Amino acid sequence: MKKIPIYILKISSVLLILTLSACNSGNVGGSASNGSMNTEIQQISQSNAIKQDQQLKMSAQTFVDDFLKNHTKDTEITAMTLTMACNSFNSGTAIAGVMGKHNNTPVPADAVFRIGSITKSFVSVIVLQLASEGKISLNDKVGSYFPEYSRWSNITIRQLMNMTSGMKDYDAVLPQLSDPAFEAYMDPTTYVLNPLAKLDLLFTPGNGWNYANPAYILLGLLVENITQQKLEDVITARITGKLNMQDTFFVRNLPFDVVEPKLVVNGMLVGTYPDGSKVEIDETNRTLSWDFAAGNILSTSQDINKYVHALFKSGLILNDNEIKELTTLYSLTNGQPVNKPSENETTLFGLGVSAQYLSNNYPFIYTYTGSEPGYIFAYYYDPKTGHSVSYGVNGYPSDNDMVWYNNNILNMLNTLNSICE
């Protein structure tokens, strides 16, 4: 899928500002000189942008090659995509490896990975937009929209979004992923919400914190109820279409229903049964229906990078008030609001986003890791500089891989600071 290089968009904006400045300067007699100067500035800007993109791509390629060469021996990971981007939206992307353990086809540039729970922030964006439009309130209670779920009647929309609802997670109701049930469509209401609604809450809503994927299934259904549209159509109209995210897809059932099979990176779920025997499941085109709004998007690191920059910058898909609500952070210990992460409490949760203390040099980073059977996807965004890192792999990292991730995320951010000056 052909894309317009982002540096061209940037240069166009720069030229527009320069042109407006020249028009307002009152220097009519110097028009020929100004035209020559603008041409020179354009050439310099374009040259700098191209150089920056090249440096970013080379750096991304170095990190990807190192990971695939040295840190995948104990896993089923065969492919990685990585995008490193400056605040200016100049970016470099590297993608390497083969499509899967049993598929030696080289990974194409527009191959997609499951992004898992990063999907949740897409749902949060839409809910915040609907609230601004007066169609719902974040203080509305579940009972107003889903009276059939009496145990959840006093949970607010906001508490669903920030994981302070008290709801339990998938493990309370779903079978093991090796179960044959996952070979066919699994209605999320039938398999997840209805049985979960029969169980007591873990705590009174607002008085604790527990990561509950089903909360976002409920939010996805709420969006469909309010808009009277399918969630995938709402996502396209309000987010991916606006941002020209041409390689991002919401999957209601099977990935191959909406994406060309040759573009879906293969994911393998590897584990052991209780008796110690090995289980290996090809998740590439297995149903995602049960996860629905909690994790059903496939995308590229380029598109997710574009999305992350829009997510935290006012005026693209959210306004100032909506971003303030999105990034209000809560403690993972007691569910109460906390201003920022710290060495004592390194991770906090917002409305489908999270913030983390990485180091003294990076004390506040917006980051999220999405995990789906056979895939890991993550982003890191520094609100101080506007620099970002987005990556995906087709498998679960080993302990050694996690050490690589932790060390090299800091290296990537340092590299961005150097290149993006």
Explain this structure to me?
This protein has 421 residues and is α+β, with helices and mostly antiparallel strands. It has one domain: 3-Layer(aba) Sandwich (Beta-lactamase). 37% of the residues lie in helices and 16% in strands. The chain has a 9-stranded antiparallel sheet, sandwiched between helices. Strands 4-8-5 form a 3-stranded antiparallel sheet. Strands 6-7 form a two-stranded antiparallel ribbon. A hairpin with a 5-residue loop joins strand 6 and strand 7. Helix 3 crosses helix 7. The radius of gyration is 23 Å and the shape is globular. The protein starts with 5 loop residues before the first helix and ends with a helix.
Q: Which terms summarize this structure?
A:
disordered N terminus, three-stranded antiparallel beta sheet, Beta-lactamase, 421 residues, nine-stranded antiparallel beta sheet, alpha+beta, 11 helices
Can I get a quick summary?
This protein is an alpha+beta fold and 421 residues long.
| Counted beta strands | 14
Uncertain stretches: 1-33, 40-44
How many structural units, i.e. domains? 1
What's the CATH H-level superfamily name?
A: DD-peptidase/beta-lactamase superfamily
Main β-sheet description: 9 strands, antiparallel
Structural class from helices and strands? alpha+beta
Instruction: Return the CATH architecture.
Output: 3-Layer(aba) Sandwich
- The helix-strand sequence is HHEEEEHHHHHHEEEEHHEEEEEEH
CA-atom Rg in angstroms: 23 Å
